[in-house]
């Protein structure tokens, strides 16, 4: 085992630009912007390629609903799933966004509600919209997990692998560096598994298979199943940030419900969408 100080000590700033001790342009905020911008760009590509009838104006309304759903769902989900006592003791802590705290599973619930509202408003099948958004979701997860690493939060379990990282925030303030054990950079594992790998898989399904039109909802179902598996894998190396449930980390436990939802979308058939009408060439 190499000496502790042979490992890289995390010293990255959470700010791209800093104006004061607590005010500035944070990478975490930029990660959300990058995720939403990526989703918007992909939705426009789908429209131009004829894979959806969702117009640019509708996509704008859909993105607005998704922003609200992700932020509200992620914030409420964090307290409900991970810190319920804190919310009961001080309900106004819900609005202390500068202290951080977002839950990806809560964000998924917010997305589902935003999709239900959008499907009703646009008179489009919910399953079709779910497929479209599922194919873009991991872009935001990728950027978010990278921001988690930059922030030095959600670190992994103690490890001796050569790429382990010493996270000073993982020990009580004032602890000498030589006494802080190195840990798995589990944020990067999650970025690769839940982010890059799932994004590539979802894009392959959308562009290279007929599931978007032939079996609406299946892409979203497979994505939920894939996310549950990738999340469970990354949780193996992540230090639990809340008490276990039935011996499972909370991230793994809550993913069980995503497996149920994913199986339902895959096994319960949806009505195929009509093929796009190709305009006749003009003479």
Describe this structure in words.
There is one protein chain. With 283 residues, the protein is mainly α. The protein has one domain. 57% of the residues lie in helices and 4% in strands. It has 9 helices and 4 strands. It has helices spanning 27-48, 56-81, 84-89, 104-122, 126-151, 186-208, 211-214, 218-235, 250-267; strands at 8-9, 15-18, 24-26, 165-166. Strands 1-4 form a two-stranded parallel sheet. It has a two-stranded antiparallel ribbon with strand order 2-3. A hairpin with a 5-residue loop joins strand 2 and strand 3 (24-26). Helix 2 (56-81) runs antiparallel to helix 4 (104-122), helix 4 (104-122) runs antiparallel to helix 5 and helix 6 packs antiparallel against helix 8 (218-235). The longest helix is centred in the N-terminal third of the chain and has 26 residues, at 56-81. It is globular and about 65 Å long. The termini are far apart.
Distance, first to last CA: 76 Å
- Give the structural class: mainly alpha
The coarse overall form would be globular
Give the % helix. Answer: 55-70%
- The radius of gyration over CA amounts to 21 Å
What number is the mean pLDDT?
91
Strand segment count: 4
Q: How much strand?
A: under 5%
Compressed to H and E, one letter per element, the order equals EEEHHHHHEHHHH
Counting structural domains, the number is 1
Main sheet: which strands, in order across?
Answer: 1-4
- Flag low-confidence runs: none
């Amino acid at each position: 085992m190499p000496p502790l100080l042979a490992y890289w000590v995390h010293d990255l700033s959470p700010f791209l630009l800093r104006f004061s001790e607590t005010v500035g342009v944070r990478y975490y905020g930029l990660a959300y912007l990058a995720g939403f911008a990526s989703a918007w760009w992909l939705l426009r590509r789908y429209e131009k390629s004829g894979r959806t009838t969702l117009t640019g104006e509708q996509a704008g309304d859909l993105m607005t609903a998704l922003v609200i759903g992700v932020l509200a769902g992620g914030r409420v989900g964090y307290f409900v799933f991970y810190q319920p006592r804190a919310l009961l003791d001080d309900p106004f802590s819900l609005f202390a966004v500068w202290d951080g705290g977002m839950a990806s599973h809560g964000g998924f619930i917010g997305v589902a509600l935003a999709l239900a509202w959008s499907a009703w408003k646009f008179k489009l099948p919910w399953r079709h919209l779910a497929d479209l958004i599922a194919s873009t979701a991991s872009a935001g997860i990728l950027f978010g997990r990278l921001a988690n690493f930059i922030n030095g939060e959600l670190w992994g379990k103690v490890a001796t692998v050569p790429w382990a990282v010493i996270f000073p925030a993982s020990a009580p303030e004032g602890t000498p560096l030589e006494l802080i054990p190195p840990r798995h950079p589990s944020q990067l594992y999650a970025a690769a598994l839940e982010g890059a790998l799932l994004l590539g898989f979802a894009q392959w399904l959308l562009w290279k298979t007929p599931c978007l039109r032939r079996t609406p909802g299946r892409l979203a179902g497979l994505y939920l199943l894939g996310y549950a598996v990738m999340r469970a894998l990354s949780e193996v190396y992540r230090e639990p940030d809340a008490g276990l449930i039935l011996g499972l980390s909370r991230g793994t436990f809550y993913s069980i419900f995503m497996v149920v939802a994913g199986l339902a979308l895959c096994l319960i058939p949806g009505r195929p969408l009509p093929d796009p009408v190709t305009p006749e060439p003009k003479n």
